[in-house]
Amino acid sequence: MSDPDDESRAYIATPEHEWLTSLTGKWTVKCAYFMGSPDNPIEVDGTENVTKMAPFWIISHFTADLLGTPMVGQAATGFNPVTRKFVGTWQDSSIPFLYVFEGKMETGKDGVKTIRFEGENFDPVRRRIALYRSCLRYPSPTEKILDLSVESDEGEIPILRYHYKRV
Q1: How many structural domains compose the chain?
Q2: CA–CA gap between residue 151 and residue 130 (Å, rounded)
Q3: Which residue from 45, 55, 74 is spatially nearest to 12, judged by alpha carbons?
Q4: DSSP of the chain
Q5: Average pLDDT rounded to a whole number, residues 109-117
Q6: Model pLDDT for residues 22-75, shown as the tens digit of each residue
Q7: What does the pLDDT look like over 124-154, one tens digit per residue?
Q8: CATH number, domain with residue 115
Q9: Is 97 inside any structural domain?
Q10: Are strands 57-66 and 69-80 parallel, antiparallel or unpaired?
Q11: Is the residue at 3 inside a domain?
C-alpha cells in the first residue's frame, strides 16, 4: 500500500490481519493480578469471546469475577499496514479510561509469536500518565499469555498475567 489516502484503492487484508482473525473464538482465562506483590497474586478465572469485524479487526469481550466484583472488558486489535504496527485499545468496567497501545510482532526461533505493545496511558494508582507495556505471546493456536506492566519511578511494575486456553 503506497498511498493510504488514495480513495480509489480498496484496502485488502494483509497476512497480519489474516493471522489476527485466526484468534477468534472462545477462551478460558486464568487471571493473576499483582496487587502490590508479584509473589502473592490474586487469582481468578475469566472468559474471553473474540469476534472479527470485517477482515481488519478483532474485538474481545472479557469477563471475570474479581473477588465478588464483576469486571467486563473490551479490546479492539488490528494491524496498521502503513506503520506496520499492531494497534489496540482496552477499556473495562473498573476504570473510566481508554488505553491505547501499538507494537510489533516478533517470531522466535521456536516459532512462538510475540507482540510487544506500548502505550502512554493514565496510571490510576500514581495518578499520572505512565508508559504501559504489554507482552502477548502465542505458544500455540490454542494458547496465549498476556503480561502487563507499568513504568514507575521504582522501575517496571507487573500488573497482571492472563493465561488463555482456547475452548
Answers
A1: 1
A2: 6
A3: 55
A4: ---TT-TTSPP---HHHHHHHTT-EEEEEEEEE-SS-TTS-EEEEEEEEEEEETTTEEEEEEEEEETTEEEEEEEEEEEETTTTEEEEEEEETT-S--EEEEEEEEE-TT--EEEEEEEEEEETTTTEEEEEEEEEEEEETTEEEEEEEEEETTEEEEEEEEEEEE-
A5: 97
A6: 999 999 999 999 987 778 999 999 999 999 999 999 999 999 998 899 999 999
A7: 989 999 999 999 999 999 999 999 999 998 8
A8: 2.40.128.20
A9: yes
A10: antiparallel
A11: no
**CA-CA distance, 97 to 50, in Å (whole number)?**
21
Whether pLDDT at 10 is above 90: no
Residue pair 132/119 in contact by the 8 Å Cβ criterion: yes
Residue 61 lies in a domain: yes
Residue 107 lies in a domain: yes
Residue numbers of the domain that contains 43: 15-166
The answer to whether 163 and 145 have CB atoms below 8 angstroms apart is yes
Q: How far apart are the first and last CA of the chain?
A: 36
Predicted model pTM? 0.91
